[in-house]
Amino acid sequence: MKPSSATVVGAGPNGLAAAIVLAQRGVKVVVLEAAETVGGGTRTAELTAPGLRHDVCSAIHPLGVASPFLRELDLETYGLTWRYPEIELAHPLDGDETVLLHRSIEQTAAGLGADGRRWEQVFGPVVRDFDSIADHVLGPMLRVPRHPFRMAAFGIRAVLPATVLARAFHEERAKALFAGCAAHAFQPLDRPGTAAVGAMLLVSGHRFGWPVAEGGSHAITLAMAQLLEELGGTVVTGTTVRGLADLPESDVTLFDTSPGGFADIVGAALPDRPRRAMRRWKHGPAAYKLDLAVRGPIPWRDPEIARAGTVHLGGTLAEVATSEREIAAGRMPERPFVLLGQQYVADPSRSAGDLNPVWAYAQVPHAFDGDATEAVLAQIERFAPGFRSQIVDTHVTTPADYAAYNLNYVGGDIGAGANTLRQLIVRPTLAGYDTGIPGMFLCSAATPPSAGVHGMCGYHAAHRALRHLAATGKPGATDVRPG
């Protein structure tokens, strides 16, 4: 009997994850990718000086090493090597004060003064239980957890606005450290649910660290593609799917696309109700990125920052909250929140001689069409006086550039959707991965658990597809995992 077949549209981390799950269950899988290489948000390129390896989008991967699915794949066999900095994250404040995130929660707490004990009380229980709840945290919210009490410990923190959870701390150091992580949500920090992203990143950092992939983020999806091919799957690059006529015949089809992109592809085949859900999917603020070739290390005012893989440049909790509120309102803040990656600290192979690649982006309004270069550089110079004089070359990626680079990044939204509480729960439909067309499923970062290089969107979508195959009596369609 002929085995079940599947087509996956898009070879980003989630598309490849979905394909791997299906191939592991005996389904014959073909992945179609519009670009000439796999990767989506994980590609790496020489964007400035020769020999410097710049991550095009994603760069630091706490959720990659925390992902239950990626951890079970043994991607190290296929060339992936995680590299860890001495310090996971640095968040400088004006003057000489810097707050540091270490993998050790005790070491982090020791640097938080009077808030050290409180930091351990807030995050310690979730860190200790993380392995037992990771599959649920990194999945659909509307389901019964296997460990309800342990999940509740995370949930009561996650549902809060970040500004409310920050009240657990008395001093600015702990408040700022948490605010910088919560700002990864690209949402005003006084909105419900914004504490979830900050808590997730901090807990992942304490449990697994904030590593980089040796040689560049592209190593993650290259390893996944190699595993898929070993399992019998096929990846076809340079193939754009514009409509249903571009798809081969298969039993199930999974789309690593935005909801709007999916609606465009399937057209009139999509029933009215799911079409309205796909079309009203809301996209969030954008990223404006600078890739810099810098001679020597960054001259941080506090030398400890030079040991960190990631640096959050935003100042106090109040400053970060103001920046997030402004961009959500469509206004460019004078001092935007800037994320800076020093991947070369953990992975010297990224550098060339005394030139180092610096990755930095500001959070800006959706579809922002202005020039934020000066604002990004000013935030770096604020904490690293003299930095500009070390810049040898600069490559700018605007929101429009990101939208052209990846059709999922509508308006420069690299998270593939606004992290509002409603959309965190209903992403983009109550059914999660179902699209309203039997046998077709969405598996992109618009589905639970949302953005990040963890593959869990594809993992859960693939299990939904396997249940569909089993229900229709297709061979080789066993779903042995919940999701």
UniProtKB/TrEMBL annotation:
Highest taxon, organism lineage: Bacteria
Matching InterPro entries: FAD/NAD-bd_sf (IPR036188)
Protein name, entry field: Phytoene dehydrogenase-like protein
